[in-house]
């Protein structure tokens, strides 16, 4: 088996694998012949036949106040005759060290199997609340701001960007979007596409929320399904609810995602008799590509030092003990050592440093986490943080 980066001429074959493996039209495939900036890795059999491939796209994500380079893994595919021959394993074994050498901090993916991707050092990360709100029982405050429909001649791009920027500053793993990421706003054509983007404003005219929703006929009724849903504060959320209440005569439920923050339940005044429901849903897996670089950017609590042992089967530079000294929340130094307070696999380290759990909870449940010396500073380094991601790749 040969594993390597593909050439531009092999883009069509990657798309053909994608179309066959995911049983989707060729037009939905990942390689854009006119503008393809992603890296594609593929495994070939001894006759040169492409068996498997995966795509790594570049993103900048928020982590503890820093913009970090993240490789989003997608289009993981193997033709049916070649499955269980190690093609994807070979792609990861080649791609991950190459990502380390290229200066990536993180990698992220949406798994078909969490157990499968744990073998390559990925661990569960972001979780979201999926809301279902009965529009007939939605009674938001009557007084508030206003909302407007975005259209091609009034895309309101900068207002949408300003609202996005708030979440990008608040939540670890949020993609920090650039200007080109908002090309969709100029293509808004609700009358033709029946997809509606509304921007909300407070009483002073400042944008404080937006959503993109589409009417969908589902078994439980004609519903509004939101593909985008972002708000700056309580007033923004309430304005979105006033918007949805105005559409109640034509739809039964509105459904949307928010960050998994329990306090958000207090935004909704009525929960009884199914007025509002939510479920907790996983939203991808994280992997640290460069342990030392990520530790240098971490935000801690207070002052102290802790020594963390990490073992990584894919990227040997991440193996060893890292002693972290920090003061007033800022990391001062990361040094190599030999006497760790705790030892953990790269996946556990990735989840903990991202902010999935505080250390006291992790000690009881995380597999492979070994405490060798009780150091209270571990809880200052590994603590729960706000997490969210809205991009798919």
Feature tags:
393 residues, alpha+beta, seven-stranded mixed β-sheet, 34% strand
3D architecture notes:
The structure is a single chain. This protein has helices spanning 11-21, 87-101, 114-118, 157-170, 190-193, 234-245, 291-297, 346-354, 359-365, 378-381; strands spanning 2-5, 39-44, 50-63, 66-78, 106-109, 123-124, 127-134, 146-149, 196-201, 207-218, 221-231, 253-259, 276-282, 285-288, 304-311, 320-327, 330-337, 342-345, 370-371. 22% of the residues lie in helices and 34% in strands. The protein is built from ten helices and 19 strands. Strand 2 (39-44) and strand 3 (50-63) form a beta hairpin. The longest helix has 15 residues, at 87-101. With 393 residues, it is an alpha+beta fold. It has a seven-stranded mixed beta sheet, with helices on both faces.
């Amino acid at each position: 088996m040969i594993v390597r980066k593909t050439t531009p001429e092999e883009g069509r074959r990657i798309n053909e694998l994608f179309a066959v493996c995911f049983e989707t039209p060729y037009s939905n495939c990942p390689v854009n012949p006119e503008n393809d900036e992603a890296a594609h890795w593929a495994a070939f059999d001894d006759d040169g036949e492409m068996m498997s491939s995966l795509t790594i796209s570049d993103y900048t994500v928020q982590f503890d106040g820093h913009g970090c380079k993240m490789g989003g893994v997608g289009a993981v595919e193997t033709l049916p005759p070649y499955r269980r021959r190690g093609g994807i394993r070979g792609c990861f074994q080649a791609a991950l060290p190459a990502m380390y050498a290229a200066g990536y901090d993180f990698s992220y993916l949406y798994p078909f199997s969490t157990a499968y991707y744990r073998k390559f050092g990925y661990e569960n990360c972001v979780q979201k609340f999926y809301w279902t709100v009965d529009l007939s029982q939605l009674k938001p405050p009557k007084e508030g701001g206003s909302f407007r429909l975005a259209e091609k001649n009034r895309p309101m791009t900068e207002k949408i960007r300003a609202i996005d920027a708030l979440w990008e500053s608040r939540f670890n793993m949020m993609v920090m979007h650039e200007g080109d990421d908002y090309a969709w706003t100029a293509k808004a054509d609700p009358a033709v596409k029946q997809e509606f983007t509304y921007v909300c404003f407070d009483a002073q005219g400042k944008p404080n929320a937006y959503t993109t929703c589409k009417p969908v006929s589902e078994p439980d009724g004609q519903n509004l399904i939101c593909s985008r849903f972002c708000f700056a504060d309580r007033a923004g959320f309430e304005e979105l609810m006033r918007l949805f209440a105005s559409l109640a005569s034509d739809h039964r439920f509105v459904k949307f995602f928010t960050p998994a923050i329990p306090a958000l339940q207090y935004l909704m005044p009525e929960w009884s008799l199914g007025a509002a429901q939510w479920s907790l849903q996983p939203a991808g897996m994280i992997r640290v590509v460069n342990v030392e670089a990520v530790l240098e950017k971490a935000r801690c609590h207070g002052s102290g030092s802790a020594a963390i042992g990490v073992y990584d089967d894919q990227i040997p530079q991440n193996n060893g003990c890292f002693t972290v000294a920090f003061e007033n929340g800022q990391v001062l130094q990361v040094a190599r050592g030999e006497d760790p307070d705790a030892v953990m696999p790269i996946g556990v380290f990735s989840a903990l440093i991202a902010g999935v759990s505080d250390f006291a909870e992790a000690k009881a449940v995380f597999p492979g986490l070994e405490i060798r010396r009780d150091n209270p500073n571990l809880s200052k380094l590994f603590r729960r943080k706000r997490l969210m991601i809205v991009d798919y790749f």
